[in-house]
Every structure is written in structure tokens, then in C-alpha cells.
């Protein structure tokens, strides 16, 4: 197992079980960035980026800060410790602890030095806007809106327009399922994505679509011109059911 030499400044930390910590490197997302591109730039993988930043989809937003290498903490095992207890305290899995430290069993002893790697908490974009693929942003406390309609607890502020909204799906013959910004919709069918005319709604914008919820302008289409959008839905039946609607759209960021 990895050992870490202690200085006088860290010796006092032993009583709490810690002997040192290295903070994670971060990357601030720019317009046009994709998880794949960031992973290539920082010599890691998309899966690792999603794990370290607790992402449930490939959707990322400008100004979002992502961990691109894990925080590394050295923990000194105390009497009564177990891998399960340590994993729960640090928000990691027993499997990860064993893999990082090269353990073939969960047997540990007082005085052992364990390396704990965590991704930390990714900093959300401005206005506390959370990934729309998994949840609706939570503004100041108000009665929760019905999950089925995905209505926001508070109307967002921003540029507003009326558009014609159609729907599309990635599950069609010849469809790649990859959006113009690199989102794989076949692998992430719960993503909230719309196709836009970039001259009207810039790619990467966070928007609120009446009847659809919060989404990201992450795709384009040859028929999507002017005040028209295409909302992504996971199945053909849902896309057909959506039909053609006139809806209000607010550009939040």
C-alpha cells in the first residue's frame, strides 16, 4: 500500500486519521467543449470524468467547473476501522478503495496507510443551474411542482420568445444519435436536449421550454430555421404524441 512521509505540520492530523491531501485539478467548461474533448486534453476518459463529477449524462454547460483528476487523501487506519466504514465516511465505494490501494481482500490493520481518491463536488454553472437531464433546478424554497410535468418551482428569468416546437428521437434508421455538440443521445436517452437555429438560440444555451422543462440547446437540424425548435424525446411514440406545438421558450443562460 502507498505510504506517505509525514512532516511536523501533518503529524497532528494523525489523531483524526489523515496524513495529507492533494487537491484535484479542474477545468472550466467553455462553449463548444465536450466531455470527450476534455478527457483527451487531460489524458483521462469520459467515464472517469462522469464518475469524478457525479454526472449522469454527457451534458455539460459553459462556466461549469469539472474535476479532471481526483483528490487524493491519505488515511491512517485506526482501531475499529473497516473498509466499509471508511468508504462511507469519504463517499467512495469499498471496491474503489480496494482497487486504488491494490487490496485483494477487505482486511486492514491499525496503522495501515490508505489512499482515498475522490472527485470532489463539481461546481455548477452560474445561477445554480443543475443538469437538466437528471433534475429540475431548485430555487428559493417553494412548493415542489409535479415531477411528471417537470414544471419549475419558479419561473426562470431571461430572453423569451415564441417558437414552433416539433420532436425527434435518436432511434431511427440511419440516425447516429450524436448531437451537433457531441451528446450521445442513444447512450443517454433521458437527456433534455433541443435542436435550434444557432443564430436565434446559441448552441450550449440553457433554456426552459414550456411543456418540456429545462434543456440544453445541443443540436441543430436542416429544417430548424428561425423561431423553430426540435425537442428530443426517447421514443418514436413520444415524438409522434408531441406533434407540432407553439410554445414559449426562455433562454436562461
UniProtKB/TrEMBL annotation:
InterPro entries assigned to the protein according to its UniProt record, in alphabetical order: 3D_dom (IPR010611), LysM (IPR018392), LysM_dom_sf (IPR036779), Resuscitation_pf_RpfB (IPR051933), RlpA-like_sf (IPR036908)
Annotated protein name in UniProt: LysM peptidoglycan-binding domain-containing protein
Pfam families reported in the protein's UniProt record: 3D, LysM
Region described as Disordered: spans on this chain: 133-160
Signal peptide: 1-24
SMART domains cross-referenced by the UniProt entry: LysM (SM00257)
Alphabetical list of PROSITE patterns matching this protein: LYSM
Top-level division of the source organism's lineage: Bacteria
Composition bias type Low complexity, residue spans: 145-156
CDD domains membership: DPBB_YuiC-like, LysM
Gene3D superfamilies found in the cross-reference section: LysM domain, RlpA-like domain
Domain LysM: start-end pairs: 25-68, 73-116
Keyword annotations: Signal
PANTHER family the UniProt entry points to: CELL WALL-BINDING PROTEIN YOCH
